[in-house]
Amino acid sequence: MESKKDMNQILLVEGKDDQHVIWALCEKHQMVENFEVIDCKGINKLIEQTPIRFKTSGIRTVGIIIDADDQLDQRWEKVKGVLQSSGFSISGSLPEDGLIVSNDTHKAGVWMMPDNKINGMLEDFISFLIPEDDQLLPIVNSTLENIESERLNRYSMHHHAKAEIHTWLAWQEDPGIPMGASITKRYLTTEQEICMKLIDWMKNLFS
Amino acid sequence: MLQSLHIQNYRNLKNFRMKSLDQVNLITGRNNTGKSILLEAIRIYASKGNLLDLEQIVENHGEFLRQRDRTKNTESDDLKTLSSLFTNRTIGFNAENSILIGELAEDIFGNSTMPDGSVIIQFVRYIDETQKDASSNLLRRRVLIGENNIEADRDFKIGFKVTVKGANSEYLYPLDNFNFRRFPYGENPISDSYQFIKTGNIDREINGKLFDDIALTDKEKYVIEALKIIEPETERVAFIEKDARGRRDAIIKLKGSKDVYPLKSMGDGINRILTIILALVNCENGFLMIDEFENGLHYSVQEQLWKIIFKLSKELDIQVFATTHSEDCIKGFQRTINDPQNSVSGKLIRMDSIDGIIKQTQFSPDELKIADEQDIEVR
């Protein structure tokens, strides 16, 4: 999917992986290409540019997908503040189906990886998409547990899901395949409830 | 300095409000959103509705209906010409049809009020009445107020009225004998100093006069400094008579060279800079308006020119309004405003036409920096 100029609906994401995953999901679910997915190169830049995106000429909808990481509540408060100062009235906590809110002129949406409920990131979301009967996943997990108990892991525990999904991807037919491509190649399923929720959020947001 | 702006019924700006303005204001937006119209409105404000300025404005728009034989100009020609200033060319006689240009102000009930200095332009119906007195005949001119106030049986006339709020200045120009060049009885209100540089104005005929006004003053140094942006060897400039009609052109002397050269031979850029800088140093305590800042200027010189404009706007207390379509112009503006040395306030204002209504969005220096770094289109 080419990024199109003059789209009046945009989805801001933290990085390239997020961008490719979204593109792959949209293709898989044959969604209308009515929004542009923009790689903001990091959470800070994404948050920083969100208010400016609402001011660009002709813009109608701005969605953001960010990782909850290990601070779901703080992230939500931060994003809430940004949207409030851009003229949206929001209160309470992040809805489990993702936030969609409108004012007189614009529409905004927030999805926090993995599922708007728990701490985590894109990789956690992806790990939910590994087919339930997958035979490699238990081996990946026991391997990770092993090296973690021996303290041989060089990743921080905060990145456990990242290590998990990339290990799993390394053992596929096409080793080291990126997450987006693994959706296209059907290594991952996209019918899971969590995935359908994200698809529905995007469909509603960019309707 | 205008702190805010409220424009009503001026061309496509039917009801346009800007809550705040800065020292240097850069205006962007698509075609037909009213960027130039906004500059014109500020010019009208600065000139206190001077008819000569209005004449130039209608002339620039090709709206000047003039018969070859001036004496044949009819009242309806003049009415048509002048109506081009009003939104939808409405010829109305009520307060709600008036052009209003001034700062934005509201009373405690949230209703718009007109602060001093506001310029009000309107068509009026009036009646000249003669009052007989024991010794003489007194002519009394009575303006009819309100649509319902037409005295059908009376023979009213139509006039063009310009009022400056708080300046005790009200002029009624009868349309049955209208001429932009005819000054009203009494003094014209003293206008603020201002300069207006049109789109494509690489060279202005008045440059020679503007130079005379600052020759041998400190301001001449600023002119040389600005020309050095393009020609670092610039030593002096002067204006010499070119033809019998008294038209004068700029010449330039470069360091280490005995000869002087016509400035025109050195390209559009340096001539545009001369035009801008001469305008700038000639509107102390006033307003500078530049339509399409980037005209004739390579992107690399735009930032340097902004630096000089920012510096002088502060030193000479000039409020600057410039329009642009150029990304490079906005980048140069952004870098100048966010330079740690800069202490001058500024912002970018984008005008949008939404269902025919002109709206504006403002970008602060911080926002411009982020947009520049992250490649976000603010135009």
Walkthrough of the structure:
The complex is a heterodimer of chains A (207) and B (379). Chain A is an alpha/beta fold. Chain A has helices at 16-28, 43-53, 72-85, 122-127, 136-149, 160-170, 179-184, 193-205; strands spanning 9-13, 36-39, 61-67, 99-102, 107-113. A 5-stranded mixed β-sheet of chain A has the order 2-1-3-5-4, with helices on both faces. In chain A, a hairpin with a 4-residue loop joins strand 4 (99-102) and strand 5. The longest helix of chain A has 14 residues, at 72-85. Mean pLDDT of chain A is 93; it is low at 1-5. By secondary structure, chain B is an alpha+beta fold. Chain B has 9 helices and 18 strands. In chain B, strands 1, 2, 4, 7, 8, 9 and 10 form a 7-stranded antiparallel β-sheet that branches. In chain B, strands 11-15-16-3-17-18 form a 6-stranded mixed β-sheet, with helices on both faces. Chain B has a 3-stranded antiparallel β-sheet with strand order 12-13-14, with helices on one face. In chain B, a hairpin with a 5-residue loop joins strand 5 and strand 6 (112-113). The longest helix of chain B is centred in the C-terminal third of the chain and has 17 residues, at 299-315. The two termini of chain B are 25 Å apart. The model of chain B has no long low-confidence stretch (mean pLDDT 89). The interface between A and B is medium-sized, with 12 and 14 residues.
Please summarize what this structure is:
Helix content of chain A is about 45%, strand content about 15%.
